[in-house]
Amino acid sequence: MKSCRVPDLLVPLLLALCCGPALAGSPDSDAIARGRRLLAERGCAACHRIPGVAPSGSLTGPPLEHAARSSYIAGILPTNERNMVRWIMHPRAIHPDSAMPELGITADEAAAMSAYLLQKRPGGAP
User: Fold this and answer.
1) In this structure, what is the dihedral angle of CA atoms 116, 71, 76, 62, given to the nearest 10 degrees?
2) Nearest to 82 by CA among 28, 48, 23, 90
3) What is the pTM assigned to this prediction?
C-alpha cells in the first residue's frame, strides 16, 4: 500500500487556509512591547491606569486593565482591534464631547497600542 504524503510546500498553504484568521489576528510580542512603550511615551498614564505602564495613574479616563474584556469602547464602539485603533487615533470624531484629546497618533502606533491593551494576559486576565 502506498502512503499518501502531503508535499512540504502544501503544509503552509493548508495551515493558512485552516488557521489563517486565527494566526493573522494574533499580535506578535514586538507589537505588544511597542504598544506598551508608546502608551508610556504618549502620556496616556496622565489620565488612565494601565497595567504594566501606570498601575496607579489618574482616573480622569477609565482604568484600562480590563479593556480586552469590556463590551464597548467609550460606551459606543464594540470592543475589537479595529475600533480600538479608530478610538485611539480620533476619539473626538467618534465622541465629540470626549475628554480624550487628539494626540496625532498614527495608524501603526494605534495598532501597537491596541495590541497591548487588548492582549490576553497570563492567568486569563486581559
Assistant:
1) -60
2) 90
3) 0.73
